[in-house]
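Replying to the earlier thread about multi-chain prediction with a worked example.

Input:
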Amino acid sequence: MSGGTFLGMPAFPRNAAAAVQDSQLRFNLRKATHTIRGKRASVVAELPDWAELRAAGKEIKDHTLRNLDRYLLQLEEAVTAAGGHVHWAADAAEANRIVADLVKATGETSVVKVKSMATQEIGLNEALQEEGITAYETDLAELIVQLGDDWPSHILVPAIHRNRSEIREIFQEKMASYGRAAPEGLTDEPRALAEAARLHLRERFLSTKVAVSGANFMIAETGTLVVLESEGNGRMCLTLPETLISVVGIEKLLPSWRDLEVFLQLLPRSSTGERMNPYTSTWTGAVEGQEFHLVLLDNGRTRVLADEVGRQALRCIRCSACLNVCPVYERAGGHAYGSVYPGPIGAILTPQLRGMGSALDASLPYASTLCGACFDACPVAIDIPEVLVHLRGKARHPRAERLGMRAAGWVFDRPARLAGAQRLGARLRRFVPGRLPGPLAGWTDTRDIPDIPAESFRDWWDRTDGGAR
Amino acid sequence: MSGGAAGPDPTARAHAAGPDPRGRTGPGTGAATGGPGTGAATGGPGTGSRELILSRIRAAVAGAPEPGITRAYRTSPDQAGAVELFAERVADYRAVVHVVDADEVAGAITAALGRRAAGRVVVPDGLPEEWARAVRSAVEAGAVPLGRGTSGAGAAAIMRDAPALSAAELDAADGVVTSCAVGIAETGTIVLDAGPGQGRRALTLVPDYHLCVVRADQIVAGVPEAVGRLDPLRPLTWISGPSATSDIELNRVEGVHGPRTLEVVIAR
Amino acid sequence: MRVALFITCVNDTLFPGTGRAVVTLLRRLGCDVEFPQAQTCCGQMHVNTGYPEEGRRLARHFVDVFAEYDAVVAPSGSCAAMVREQYPRLARAGDASFAGEVAETVPKVHDLSEFLVDVLGVTDVGAYFPHRVTYHPTCHSLRGLRLGDRPTRLLEQVRGLELVPLPGAEECCGFGGTFAVKNPAVSAAMCGDKVRNVAGTGAEVLCAADNSCLMHIGGTLKRQRTGVRIMHLAEILAATEATR
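Result:
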């Protein structure tokens, strides 16, 4: 995904085990996820037709994906007719090359960026750096991540793993090397930190000639692009520069303008837990004299689309509601997932986009208890547990596990074998150690194991004729 | 729709964007330039990647069922009390809200600018004359310039966007006064469509203070009605309260890059 | 009504008392309970760990065993949810006749509280249990089967029982089947939070409708010497003055 970023990272369980030991991280994550979880629940409960909106959202997305070729062509035609230029990128390298060439053609050596998952996925900033172009992130959290030479750990609030005092330190140490230094005597008050970011970026907004963005939605019917945000950095990047380049995954399409009536209700409430996010910008082609380029990105999406069960992951509108309700994400944090897409959606999207070749990617479908909280929270009804189980069926299994599962299957195939195994266990029950060996040690490290009863239920039923004797 | 630049989809949407049909910012303006970067012959029409992606899609969905779309959600929520709900929901975002009679708008503008001590105020083309005069009288009433030390700042003035103000000039403004296209009661959202009295998008973004006047007849109950009233071919800005972030420990802070203060005058 | 008890492999092997309690309770309510000896396991462990073929084989076996009954009762939310949610999916990849049998059998499979409240139409089962109890609605009961308040309505009718709310009740305990073994650190962290919430209620008994989750939470309750004991819903509902 991102140019070598996560390659060679260990599998999820190891990353998560380290994160679980980090008490500051645990505290930050717990506080943040519970806060946003509560906000979402209350604004969703406000709408009497949430279930109907959710059903429509799911169906609109499914319909779009089913007819994606037709809608992409319609979009291309509409964007072109409105004065924009459309480019197609089959993979990350091609998308990066297209963007770099477009920036070079303007003669500029720096770009401002709107927060975009797609450009992180393809490692655009690093690719531009290699071409001598500096990409400046302008979203507050992305700025924190960039200055801290860090990785985002959440789709909506990428610096969720950082607390105020860490952010203050990052600003004091790093802002000067990127532009305007942090103010003297900067405190760790969120207001003061936001103000420091405002001052740091203002000059850059007013002077930078090229901007790079993603998009939340593209409307095939009209060629309109839509970006939702909170801070206004998006508006700055979308309106002030002379050239705008938007890199958007091909699954971000909606058929008609009317469909926004559904998604502009689903997304803000699910994402930030607000009735509406502070700013949404929509533009069609080249507006207000701006030069506009749209780069349509595949990068594995068509592979996901080919999987009957897994393709529902492409409905995702990147709201992050699933992360905020996920008990595993809450404890493991975003970095453990080794991808710009963490949490439950990441656990099904990343292994499909990248394949399950690496130890990390093969471990992601198992990074879940299948508790189902994500499915309930998803505004487009992606059955994440269903996809997780589906991907587990395609994963490579460790040999010891395969043998164990085969043995268990053999026992369960015949009731007599099961009864025999139970009796054997009952006979040996005094010899069960308090600490189990091998992979089962993880259980007994923190939990006792239940006592094995002297008699199984089926033997009791047999002996007493179901309690009659 | 064929996506032609000939204007909006003619499937009859009521455009409540005021009296300006297809203003300066219609589609295609200034875009007829071939522009640079057309050297980026990668992935354009007829190229390998375009065909590759399309063929991958066709192979991926071949034989998949065609899902239907059921729209059972509300498309015309109760309009009663929309103005009051709008006022309440805008205020929820910690914007400053006034509800006044139509003939009190000018006075409300003057008073609001006076409270801000705004000396340099941007007035977009097409703002009703009476409101523009209200801005003038506030500015001339001896508003104290904030004097942020940027060159050109200081002298109290009405700032017109013709010729176009530079980003630096906008940055030196104390505020901007606009009308709007649509207000949404359920979400407390104001939508600007660059129509008369709203100006281009940067005017309401760079100054630190935005005073917006919303007429009662522009307020709709919910998001579906707003989408129906708006023209997608115009650049739209949906505004719900002042700019904000929750990036630091999920604490909401108002005022990041956009205006830190949003003041709304609702004309009954 | 011919009611078959689907005991589930975990209960059969590790929690036979739960099965005996179900038998006692259903007989008290006038049901004719049968125990088809050919039953083994619903296949959940295999399917959820990524072995769909073995899971499908066990699903076929389940359908063969239970097809003839009017109702199948399982004292396990997660096994009932497995049958209801995953069997149709497993059948989709199988032959048409299997899909038909699944469609026939699945609606007849009920979790215990569903069977009591929806099929028998009772909430007061005549139980007596004079203790302070808190209830953990396990994930598959809550979000798979959508049991809602059925279990707590049953508990509220138990004479002598004081039901205390569990903070963060809807959050997963971290068991997740093989998750507890594959991701022990996160699983233990989740269970630690659950146990803190349970202990904080001051309850004597933690009740749930799933013994696998109870085994997980109970293992930690015991390791931490909290003195809180675990009981399956069936065991509380089966209790009367005579048994106390």
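The longest strand of chain B covers residues 209-215.

Feel free to reuse this layout for your own posts.
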